[in-house]
């Protein structure tokens, strides 16, 4: 009898190209919600998960034959890597293939926020240019700004490189100073926020980054301050941000990510000088295709060669 194909569970709202890439090579089973709708034998045989940042310990623990969790996204904060590591299950993510897209979007969000591009377009579309005259001058400009990056990893570095031609000063805070860049290094986020007037957040969601951008950090940015978050909503105290925008503690903010997506607090949306995007930094067809292809490549590589392409640090490369 021919050997059966490995069972891969597709969990969450995953890009359809993942399924297209897996079909024919694997027995692909879509999981709608929890595992209760699945046949016992499928659960017993499931060797892989292709998922959208959602593999908690409860899911992992129900799958006795699980070998690999291939996450769609570079951030894998929704995957319980400790539970995976305990069972010797490898976790992969999609680093690098989205760096340029996310960095491009960050620059767009920064410019849109500083120069009020969204409000200006609305002014034109609402007929106000014709009926009321020119759109107001933007109080803010990118000119002479000092931009601080909270996070200077794969994506942060691409953001920094894109900022260079804008002739702004660039500094950063990470836990370890990078030896390969000449940007100013600050050993704490508070010191960085005090030095700069523009802060871009591109750190992962970890216990240490929870609400790291709080009332004190916003106050340190100052009344000319601009805060952009393209990392995770988790890293910003949204109540403090709302208060800071409403009271002029900082001048403006641009957010691609939120604490409780897709819900965004009404009070925050009410705040002045806030630009918001629905978590779209990597969301172009070419980039999402590249991410999907990397998810598939990790699974194929694991089940054919017994090795993966992009393991996460918590479950380092190993062979099957
Ligand atoms: P990365 O290469 O791992 O870089 C992470 C950076 O954050 C590093 O510079 C790291 O430096 C720093 N960092 C981590 N923990 C820190 C801490 N506690 N304090 C200060 N700095 C810290 O990751 P990446 O590929 O650039 O992605 C970063 C994150 O962006 C992802 O995890 C994801 O959450 C988010 N993201 C969002 C979107 C979107 O659509 N908006 C798209 C892609 C990624 P040290 O280790 O030296 O501290
Ligand atoms: C996507 C992201 O929103 O890669 C990440 O960490 O946040 C984004 O690229 C998501 O992962 C896929 O839809």
Topology overview:
Elements: E1 7-11, H1 16-22, E2 27-31, H2 40-45, E3 46-51, H3 57-61, E4 68-71, H4 81-86, E5 90-92, H5 99-114, H6 117-125, H7 128-132, E6 146-150, H8 154-163, E7 169-173, E8 184-185, H9 189-195, E9 198-201, H10 215-221, E10 226-229, H11 238-247, E11 252-255, H12 266-269, E12 274-276, H13 285-305
Parallel strand pairs: 1-2, 1-3, 3-4, 4-5, 6-7, 6-9, 7-8, 9-10, 10-11, 11-12
Bound molecules: NADP nicotinamide-adenine-dinucleotide phosphate and 2-keto-D-gluconic acid.
Query: What average pLDDT do the residues reach?
Result: 97
* CATH topology title of the largest domain: Rossmann fold
**Beta-strand residue percentage:** 15-25%
CATH structural class of the largest domain: Alpha Beta
| Attached small molecules | NADP nicotinamide-adenine-dinucleotide phosphate, 2-keto-D-gluconic acid
CATH homologous superfamily of the largest domain, by name? NAD(P)-binding Rossmann-like Domain
Helix content: 25-40%
Give the low-confidence spans: none
Q: List the total number of helices.
A: 13
Order of helices and strands: EHEHEHEHEHHHEHEEHEHEHEHEH
């Amino acid at each position: 009898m021919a050997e059966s194909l490995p069972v891969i569970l597709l969990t969450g709202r995953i890009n359809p190209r993942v399924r297209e890439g897996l079909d024919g090579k694997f027995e692909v089973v879509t999981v709608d919600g929890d595992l209760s709708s699945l046949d016992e034998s499928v659960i017993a045989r499931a060797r892989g998960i292709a998922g959208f940042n959602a593999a908690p310990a409860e899911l992992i623990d129900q799958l006795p034959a699980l070998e690999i969790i291939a996450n769609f996204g570079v951030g894998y904060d929704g995957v319980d890597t400790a539970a995976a590591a305990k069972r010797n299950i490898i976790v992969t993510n999609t680093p690098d293939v989205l760096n340029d897209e996310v960095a491009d979007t960050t620059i767009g969000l920064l410019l849109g926020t500083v120069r009020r591009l969204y409000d200006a377009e609305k002014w034109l579309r609402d007929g106000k240019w014709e009926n009321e005259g020119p759109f107001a001058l933007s109080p803010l400009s990118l000119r002479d700004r000092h931009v601080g990056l909270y996070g200077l990893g794969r994506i942060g570095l691409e953001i920094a490189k894109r900022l260079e031609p804008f002739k702004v000063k660039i500094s950063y805070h990470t836990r370890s100073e990078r030896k390969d860049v000449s940007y100013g290094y600050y050993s704490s986020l508070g010191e960085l926020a005090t030095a700069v007037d523009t802060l871009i957040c591109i750190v992962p969601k970890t216990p240490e980054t929870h609400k790291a951008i709080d009332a004190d950090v916003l106050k340190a940015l100052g009344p000319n301050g601009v805060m952009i978050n393209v990392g995770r909503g988790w890293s910003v105290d949204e109540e403090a941000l709302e208060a800071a925008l409403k009271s002029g503690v900082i001048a403006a903010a641009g957010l691609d990510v939120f604490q409780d997506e897709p819900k965004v607090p009404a009070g925050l949306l009410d705040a002045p000088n806030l630009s918001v995007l629905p978590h779209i930094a990597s969301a172009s067809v070419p980039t999402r295709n590249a991410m999907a292809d990397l998810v598939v490549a990790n699974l194929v590589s694991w089940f054919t060669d017994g090795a993966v392409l992009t393991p996460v640090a918590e479950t380092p490369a190993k062979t099957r």
